[in-house]
């Protein structure tokens, strides 16, 4: 057994998008606890700084670089600061930032479609492209890219044509990265497709969570209580009949799957879509 006295990711630098809250924030804490230099990328500056501050005060090493991943000008700044923070190196990118903007096909607007596709496909592509100089290297150190997908991208989902297409798209992007950057540079790329994980995207819509777009429009997040109950989910009828483990996953469990996939214990796994669903859809 290999001993990692300073953590699985000691000396490695990881960019985690959408890490001001939810799965991303949990991933940031887990990676920091395993010795990584963690770059907190989130549109909410207050939340990003709070996550970084808590990691640093706990003996970890984190840097908050707030900004909108949808803003093309933000990405070069994020990569530049991450590279400086990592003493000239970046080892891990986790493309986690995202949200849903649902609508049935015949009522979905171009704005809904374009926003979600840009968020879940174009933004991760731009980040990976910008960081290419840190990954297309031969220094013997591990490099890993994780793109977060969803079961909606694997199986489709009513009311989520935009999200389903975008999440399917990152699977293709991941496989392409693995094929282009694996042979010469040893870069591993994998997709993690989450099922029912308890986050603001799966809480009751009536709680009022929302995302504010750059033009000021608010996008409501969550699942209507009536819709959850019809599926045996949520506070009304929490039986989860379609999940063999009979419960949703936690943000910490979801983040743990990211950590595990990046770890040296999965060093021969690349180009795969790893389903984290509690057994749903098997």
From TrEMBL:
Q: Does the keyword Membrane apply?
A: no
Q: What class of enzyme is it?
A: oxidoreductase
Q: Does the keyword NADP apply?
A: yes
Q: Which reaction does it catalyse?
A: a (3R)-hydroxyacyl-[ACP] + NADP(+) = a 3-oxoacyl-[ACP] + NADPH + H(+)
**Which GO terms fall under molecular function for this chain's record?**
3-oxoacyl-[acyl-carrier-protein] reductase (NADPH) activity
Keywords annotated in UniProt: NADP
The superkingdom listed in its UniProt entry is Eukaryota
The record's EC number reads 1.1.1.100
* Residues annotated as domain Ketoreductase: 12-184
PANTHER family, alphabetically? 3-OXOACYL-(ACYL-CARRIER-PROTEIN) REDUCTASE, 3-OXOACYL-[ACYL-CARRIER-PROTEIN] REDUCTASE FABG
Its family remark reads: Belongs to the short-chain dehydrogenases/reductases (SDR) family.
The protein's name: 3-oxoacyl-[acyl-carrier-protein] reductase
Organism (species): Eremomyces bilateralis CBS 781.70
